[in-house]
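BACKBONE GEOMETRY TOKENS:
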Amino acid sequence: MPLLEMKKIQKTFLGVVALNGVDFDLEKGEVHCLVGENGAGKSTLVKILSGAYTDYHGEIFLDSQPVRIDNPRKSRHLGIAAIQQHRDLVPTLNAVENMFLGQEMKRGKTILFQKEYARAKEMIAIFGRTIDLEIPVSSLSVSDQEIVAICKALLSNCKILILDETAAPLDRQERVILFQKIRELAEKGLGIIYISHDLEEIFEVGDRVTVLKDGRKVGTREVTKTDLEEIVKMMIGTEQKKPTTNKDIQKSIQPILRVRNLTVEKRLKNISFDLFGGEILGIYGLAGSGIEYIGYALFGVVPKSKNSEIYLHENRVRLGNPKESLRMGIALIPDDRRIKGLVSTRSVGQNIVLPLINKTKQRLIPSQFVYTISREYIEKLHIKTPSYLQLVEYLSGGNQQKVLVAKMLVTNCNVLILIEPTEGIDVGTRYELYQLFRNLSEDTHKGLILISTDLDQILALSDRILILCRDGNLREGFPQEWNKQEIFEMALGANSVKYNSNTKGCEK
């Protein structure tokens, strides 16, 4: 008898069909993976289960009993806990307050704060992390926020646990720990729905896998009786082409960007490197290493120390805020599109032209201007949207990411900084963006900085690599010089070296 059955589930958004008669079931003690390209309907299906979308058609059975999930509270009451792709945390509350929100430890009406803090530390320690429990979660790194969200879900007494792209911000070691916890929970009888765009994870943690495509169910397979090739074909329909690489790199003679002694208090110290036109410079580090602050500092989001020096085309610049950075030709695609990159309650067109507003002298932006610019990038990036007027919040994660990329490309920047640019994106969209970034790098007047904890991504895209070691030193080289294990060990701190500004290389 299945723990959960969903039959003929249908859901539409403003006439766009998100789910079309989807069937799905879950057994007790099972990890059932749910995969598909962006826009396939995965997140929509689990949001119906979690009570976020209530105007759906179809039937849901829990322990063979029909249920109607018409709000999040009803979902929790039925024993369903979910970690959504965008982490449903309250930004102004700290980690402990978020973890115990709605499930406080009490004696009578008194909240036992000390016990909550002790329990929170115990849960977080499972992942080998030390997280500041006193500051708002909005001040934590994305990976730390994810661990808080995971701990919050694990604290609930649920029958069904939904994990939507939960492992994406975590490093390899943290993923292994998460997968162990998932298997332990399944062995205790929990039913777990696991959504991931990293298809290799299916074979590490899953029992069955269901593939969705364009809002329809393609099929379900036992993990032990399928392989990666079959799953990809079910998702895409054809063999996916890998992005072409530019082996004969044409770089500018002089660097377009020089960074010396970049320092951010408590995050980075004396980071130095060059970026040449016509290249993608990959910067790799483990989750929690602070590599994202290189991008934030260059874009003026976080303050730099006075001894930090940044040269753009050999001219020293200050870059004290994002407006100034954009004016100087530096653009940033941040790691959290929903919080840091897009205005989800505005349209696709309004988001795309947002950086251009300050450049126009008109107080009111003509709708024709928004239409013309947005249509160009909707077509160029193949953004799936019924209209440029569609609100961004109704797009799939991959199409939201394409809107964010378009928003930065419209600035015609010379330096494009990418922080985890394909997190939570399906394999097809990922390769589309890879090829786009590669095409951009062919212009010797433009350079890209790829900042990522995804080593496969770094190796696939980068012409040159910087590795940020745990002791704060940099190691520089080319992708073909090292294997993945060597790079990972360097990031852990082994054989760390310092950047030598005279040789543009590294010294031991």
